[in-house]
Amino acid sequence: MNYIEVKFKCTPNDEVVNSVLSVYLAEIGFESFVESQEGTIAYIQESLFDADQIQVILNDLPIDAEIIYSYKSIEGQDWNEEWEKNYFKPLIIDNKCIIQSTFHNVAATYEYNILIDPKMAFGTGHHQTTELMIREILKNDFTEKSILDMGCGTAILAILASMRGANTITAIDIDKWAYDNAMENLKLNNIENVKVEIGGAELLGKDSYDIILANINRNILLNDINIYASVLNVGGCLYMSGFYTEDIPAIKAECEKHGLSFNYNVEKENWTAVKFTK
Protein backbone atom coordinates (compact mmCIF):
# COMPACT_ATOMS: atom_id res chain seq x y z
CA MET A 1 0.00 0.00 0.00
CA ASN A 2 1.36 3.41 -0.99
CA TYR A 3 1.09 6.56 1.13
CA ILE A 4 1.14 10.28 0.45
CA GLU A 5 3.40 12.42 2.62
CA VAL A 6 2.13 15.98 3.01
CA LYS A 7 4.39 18.67 4.47
CA PHE A 8 2.55 21.63 5.99
CA LYS A 9 4.45 24.85 6.62
CA CYS A 10 2.64 26.72 9.40
CA THR A 11 2.98 30.36 10.41
CA PRO A 12 2.96 30.58 13.36
CA ASN A 13 4.47 27.14 13.90
CA ASP A 14 3.24 26.32 17.40
CA GLU A 15 1.59 23.48 19.28
CA VAL A 16 -1.94 24.89 18.99
CA VAL A 17 -1.86 25.42 15.23
CA ASN A 18 -0.35 22.00 14.56
CA SER A 19 -2.67 20.19 16.95
CA VAL A 20 -5.83 21.77 15.48
CA LEU A 21 -4.58 21.05 11.96
CA SER A 22 -3.94 17.39 12.80
CA VAL A 23 -7.43 16.92 14.22
CA TYR A 24 -9.07 18.23 11.05
CA LEU A 25 -6.77 16.19 8.81
CA ALA A 26 -7.60 13.04 10.77
CA GLU A 27 -11.25 13.52 9.83
CA ILE A 28 -10.41 13.05 6.14
CA GLY A 29 -8.25 9.96 6.63
CA PHE A 30 -4.76 11.08 7.65
CA GLU A 31 -3.22 8.49 9.95
CA SER A 32 0.04 9.81 11.36
CA PHE A 33 1.52 13.19 12.16
CA VAL A 34 5.07 14.35 12.90
CA GLU A 35 6.38 17.66 14.21
CA SER A 36 8.85 19.40 11.91
CA GLN A 37 10.90 22.58 12.03
CA GLU A 38 8.28 24.25 9.81
CA GLY A 39 5.02 22.70 10.97
CA THR A 40 3.46 19.27 10.47
CA ILE A 41 4.22 16.28 8.27
CA ALA A 42 1.16 14.07 7.74
CA TYR A 43 0.57 10.68 6.10
CA ILE A 44 -2.49 9.32 4.32
CA GLN A 45 -3.17 6.28 2.15
CA GLU A 46 -2.78 7.19 -1.51
CA SER A 47 -6.31 6.01 -2.31
CA LEU A 48 -7.76 8.48 0.25
CA PHE A 49 -5.72 11.51 -0.73
CA ASP A 50 -7.73 14.48 -2.02
CA ALA A 51 -5.99 17.84 -2.42
CA ASP A 52 -9.34 19.63 -2.72
CA GLN A 53 -10.35 18.37 0.73
CA ILE A 54 -7.10 19.65 2.20
CA GLN A 55 -7.72 23.09 0.75
CA VAL A 56 -11.24 23.15 2.18
CA ILE A 57 -9.79 22.37 5.62
CA LEU A 58 -7.16 25.09 5.34
CA ASN A 59 -9.79 27.62 4.30
CA ASP A 60 -12.05 26.74 7.24
CA LEU A 61 -9.57 26.24 10.11
CA PRO A 62 -10.84 28.09 13.23
CA ILE A 63 -7.40 29.58 13.97
CA ASP A 64 -5.42 32.54 12.69
CA ALA A 65 -2.59 30.93 10.75
CA GLU A 66 -1.01 30.87 7.31
CA ILE A 67 -0.50 27.30 6.09
CA ILE A 68 0.94 26.09 2.78
CA TYR A 69 1.72 22.51 1.81
CA SER A 70 3.49 20.20 -0.61
CA TYR A 71 3.20 16.43 -1.06
CA LYS A 72 4.83 13.34 -2.53
CA SER A 73 4.10 9.63 -2.87
CA ILE A 74 5.90 7.10 -0.65
CA GLU A 75 6.16 3.38 -1.37
CA GLY A 76 4.23 1.40 1.23
CA GLN A 77 7.15 -0.73 2.33
CA ASP A 78 9.19 2.40 3.08
CA TRP A 79 6.56 4.26 5.12
CA ASN A 80 7.51 3.05 8.58
CA GLU A 81 11.18 3.51 7.78
CA GLU A 82 10.46 7.08 6.64
CA TRP A 83 8.80 7.82 9.97
CA GLU A 84 11.34 6.11 12.19
CA LYS A 85 14.58 7.17 10.51
CA ASN A 86 13.79 10.65 9.27
CA TYR A 87 11.19 12.25 11.51
CA PHE A 88 11.28 10.79 14.99
CA LYS A 89 14.83 10.05 15.94
CA PRO A 90 15.79 9.49 19.57
CA LEU A 91 16.52 12.86 21.18
CA ILE A 92 19.16 13.28 23.89
CA ILE A 93 19.09 16.43 26.02
CA ASP A 94 21.97 17.56 28.24
CA ASN A 95 23.28 13.99 28.27
CA LYS A 96 20.70 13.32 31.01
CA CYS A 97 17.48 12.58 29.21
CA ILE A 98 16.63 10.49 26.16
CA ILE A 99 13.27 10.68 24.42
CA GLN A 100 12.47 7.81 22.10
CA SER A 101 9.57 5.76 20.80
CA THR A 102 8.88 2.10 21.39
CA PHE A 103 10.21 1.29 17.91
CA HIS A 104 13.66 2.75 18.65
CA ASN A 105 14.85 0.33 21.36
CA VAL A 106 17.85 2.45 22.37
CA ALA A 107 19.46 1.20 25.59
CA ALA A 108 18.27 3.21 28.61
CA THR A 109 21.68 4.40 29.76
CA TYR A 110 20.57 7.93 30.66
CA GLU A 111 19.21 9.22 33.94
CA TYR A 112 15.78 9.81 32.40
CA ASN A 113 14.47 7.49 29.69
CA ILE A 114 11.14 8.73 28.28
CA LEU A 115 9.07 6.65 25.88
CA ILE A 116 6.74 8.65 23.63
CA ASP A 117 4.51 7.24 20.90
CA PRO A 118 3.15 10.57 19.60
CA LYS A 119 0.41 9.40 17.20
CA MET A 120 -2.00 12.35 16.92
CA ALA A 121 -0.59 14.54 19.71
CA PHE A 122 2.41 16.83 19.61
CA GLY A 123 5.30 16.85 22.03
CA THR A 124 8.23 14.61 21.11
CA GLY A 125 10.79 17.14 22.32
CA HIS A 126 11.95 17.91 18.80
CA HIS A 127 10.21 21.27 18.57
CA GLN A 128 12.32 24.09 19.98
CA THR A 129 9.72 25.10 22.56
CA THR A 130 9.31 21.58 23.94
CA GLU A 131 13.08 21.17 24.19
CA LEU A 132 13.40 24.49 26.02
CA MET A 133 10.78 23.41 28.55
CA ILE A 134 12.46 20.05 29.04
CA ARG A 135 15.75 21.80 29.79
CA GLU A 136 13.99 23.94 32.41
CA ILE A 137 12.59 20.86 34.11
CA LEU A 138 16.03 19.24 34.11
CA LYS A 139 17.77 22.21 35.73
CA ASN A 140 15.16 23.21 38.34
CA ASP A 141 13.92 21.50 41.51
CA PHE A 142 10.64 19.60 41.12
CA THR A 143 10.98 17.43 44.22
CA GLU A 144 7.65 17.04 46.05
CA LYS A 145 6.12 19.91 44.05
CA SER A 146 2.53 20.07 42.86
CA ILE A 147 2.53 20.59 39.08
CA LEU A 148 0.10 21.85 36.46
CA ASP A 149 0.92 21.06 32.81
CA MET A 150 -1.28 23.17 30.52
CA GLY A 151 -1.51 22.08 26.88
CA CYS A 152 0.08 18.78 27.80
CA GLY A 153 -0.02 17.13 24.35
CA THR A 154 1.75 13.78 24.68
CA ALA A 155 2.30 14.46 28.42
CA ILE A 156 6.05 14.55 27.88
CA LEU A 157 6.57 17.43 30.34
CA ALA A 158 4.35 15.83 32.97
CA ILE A 159 6.23 12.54 32.59
CA LEU A 160 9.61 14.20 33.08
CA ALA A 161 8.29 16.24 36.02
CA SER A 162 7.18 12.99 37.66
CA MET A 163 10.59 11.43 37.02
CA ARG A 164 12.16 14.52 38.61
CA GLY A 165 10.30 13.85 41.85
CA ALA A 166 7.11 15.89 41.53
CA ASN A 167 4.33 14.97 43.94
CA THR A 168 0.95 15.44 42.24
CA ILE A 169 0.58 16.48 38.59
CA THR A 170 -2.45 17.69 36.65
CA ALA A 171 -2.13 17.63 32.85
CA ILE A 172 -4.74 19.44 30.74
CA ASP A 173 -5.32 19.66 26.98
CA ILE A 174 -8.28 20.77 24.87
CA ASP A 175 -7.73 17.95 22.38
CA LYS A 176 -9.33 14.51 22.90
CA TRP A 177 -6.53 13.00 20.76
CA ALA A 178 -3.98 14.48 23.18
CA TYR A 179 -5.87 13.11 26.19
CA ASP A 180 -5.87 9.58 24.77
CA ASN A 181 -2.22 9.77 23.75
CA ALA A 182 -1.19 11.23 27.12
CA MET A 183 -2.86 8.31 28.90
CA GLU A 184 -1.03 5.84 26.66
CA ASN A 185 2.34 7.48 27.23
CA LEU A 186 1.85 7.64 30.99
CA LYS A 187 1.25 3.90 30.95
CA LEU A 188 4.33 3.31 28.76
CA ASN A 189 6.47 5.10 31.35
CA ASN A 190 4.79 3.58 34.43
CA ILE A 191 3.74 7.02 35.68
CA GLU A 192 0.90 6.92 38.21
CA ASN A 193 0.80 10.40 39.78
CA VAL A 194 -0.55 12.34 36.76
CA LYS A 195 -4.24 13.20 36.36
CA VAL A 196 -5.19 14.07 32.75
CA GLU A 197 -8.21 16.27 31.95
CA ILE A 198 -9.80 17.53 28.73
CA GLY A 199 -10.40 21.27 28.54
CA GLY A 200 -8.71 24.61 29.07
CA ALA A 201 -8.19 27.20 31.78
CA GLU A 202 -11.88 27.03 32.67
CA LEU A 203 -11.03 23.80 34.55
CA LEU A 204 -8.76 25.67 36.96
CA GLY A 205 -9.75 27.01 40.35
CA LYS A 206 -10.22 24.00 42.61
CA ASP A 207 -6.52 23.38 43.29
CA SER A 208 -3.31 25.40 43.56
CA TYR A 209 0.16 24.51 42.32
CA ASP A 210 3.82 25.05 43.12
CA ILE A 211 4.83 24.95 39.45
CA ILE A 212 2.88 25.63 36.27
CA LEU A 213 4.16 24.55 32.86
CA ALA A 214 2.45 26.10 29.83
CA ASN A 215 3.78 25.49 26.33
CA ILE A 216 0.95 27.05 24.34
CA ASN A 217 0.15 29.68 21.75
CA ARG A 218 1.04 33.30 22.63
CA ASN A 219 -2.54 34.57 22.47
CA ILE A 220 -3.86 31.81 24.70
CA LEU A 221 -1.13 32.50 27.23
CA LEU A 222 -1.93 36.22 27.29
CA ASN A 223 -5.59 35.40 27.84
CA ASP A 224 -4.97 32.86 30.62
CA ILE A 225 -2.02 34.29 32.59
CA ASN A 226 -4.40 35.88 35.10
CA ILE A 227 -5.91 32.45 35.78
CA TYR A 228 -2.48 30.81 36.11
CA ALA A 229 -1.49 33.51 38.62
CA SER A 230 -4.63 32.88 40.67
CA VAL A 231 -3.87 29.16 41.12
CA LEU A 232 -0.09 29.49 41.60
CA ASN A 233 1.11 29.24 45.19
CA VAL A 234 3.08 32.14 46.66
CA GLY A 235 6.73 31.50 45.84
CA GLY A 236 5.67 29.22 42.99
CA CYS A 237 7.07 29.30 39.46
CA LEU A 238 5.42 29.69 36.07
CA TYR A 239 7.33 28.40 33.04
CA MET A 240 5.94 29.32 29.61
CA SER A 241 6.92 28.74 26.01
CA GLY A 242 5.27 28.59 22.60
CA PHE A 243 6.18 32.08 21.41
CA TYR A 244 9.03 34.14 19.98
CA THR A 245 11.58 36.33 21.76
CA GLU A 246 9.86 39.47 20.42
CA ASP A 247 6.72 38.44 22.33
CA ILE A 248 8.46 38.62 25.71
CA PRO A 249 7.51 42.27 26.47
CA ALA A 250 3.80 41.52 26.05
CA ILE A 251 4.05 38.34 28.14
CA LYS A 252 6.08 40.15 30.82
CA ALA A 253 3.64 43.07 31.03
CA GLU A 254 0.66 40.74 31.47
CA CYS A 255 2.45 38.69 34.13
CA GLU A 256 3.46 41.76 36.13
CA LYS A 257 -0.18 42.92 36.16
CA HIS A 258 -0.97 39.77 38.13
CA GLY A 259 1.86 39.73 40.65
CA LEU A 260 4.35 37.60 38.72
CA SER A 261 8.01 38.64 38.65
CA PHE A 262 10.22 37.94 35.64
CA ASN A 263 13.25 35.73 36.38
CA TYR A 264 14.84 34.97 33.01
CA ASN A 265 14.33 33.62 29.53
CA VAL A 266 16.19 31.08 27.40
CA GLU A 267 16.20 30.95 23.61
CA LYS A 268 16.58 28.60 20.68
CA GLU A 269 16.27 29.76 17.07
CA ASN A 270 14.18 32.79 18.12
CA TRP A 271 11.79 30.63 20.15
CA THR A 272 11.91 31.29 23.88
CA ALA A 273 10.89 29.98 27.29
CA VAL A 274 10.42 32.24 30.30
CA LYS A 275 10.33 31.78 34.05
CA PHE A 276 8.23 33.91 36.41
CA THR A 277 7.82 33.70 40.19
CA LYS A 278 4.84 34.68 42.32
Q: Approximately how much helix is present in the residues?
A: 25-40%
Q: What ranges have pLDDT less than 50 throughout 5 or more consecutive residues?
A: none
CATH topology name of the largest domain, in short, is: Rossmann fold
User: If you compute it from the alpha carbons, what radius of gyration comes out, rounded to the nearest whole angstrom?
Assistant: 18 Å
Main beta-sheet annotation: 7 strands, mixed
The order of strands across the largest sheet is 10-9-8-11-12-14-13
The domain count comes to: 2
Termini Cα gap: 55 Å
Pattern of helices and strands? EHEEHEHEEEHEHEHEEHEHEE
Q: DSSP helix count?
A: 8
Strand content: 25-35%
Highest-level CATH class of the largest domain: Alpha Beta
What gross morphology would you assign? Answer: globular
Strand tally is: 14
**What name goes with the CATH superfamily of the largest domain?**
Vaccinia Virus protein VP39
- Name the average pLDDT: 89
